[in-house]
Specification:
The protein is mostly helical and 76 residues long. It has helices spanning 31-44, 52-75.
């Protein structure tokens, strides 16, 4: 049985991203590392038959982390 290929997503470094409208340079040097970490968690995110609730917990934690990061970037 052939496994279905999973899409691969990469997070690009957005510091000073000139093609992002209204983008400001990010003052916190941890932002890119945090984005890569969140992208890695998203790539590994999958439902588990042993703990189906964990998928939704992890999804909520990632969403919360992204919102907090967006607020931090917006503040500059």
């Amino acid at each position: 049985m052939m496994r279905e290929a999973r899409p691969c997503y990469h997070v690009t470094d957005v510091i000073g991203g000139s093609d992002v409208i209204g983008a400001k340079p990010v003052r916190n040097p941890n932002v890119p590392a945090t984005l890569y970490s969140l992208a890695d968690r998203l790539q590994r995110l999958a439902p588990s038959p042993r703990n189906p609730e964990r998928f939704h917990e992890e999804k909520s934690e990632i969403a919360h982390a992204l919102v907090e990061l967006a607020r931090e970037v917006r503040r500059g």
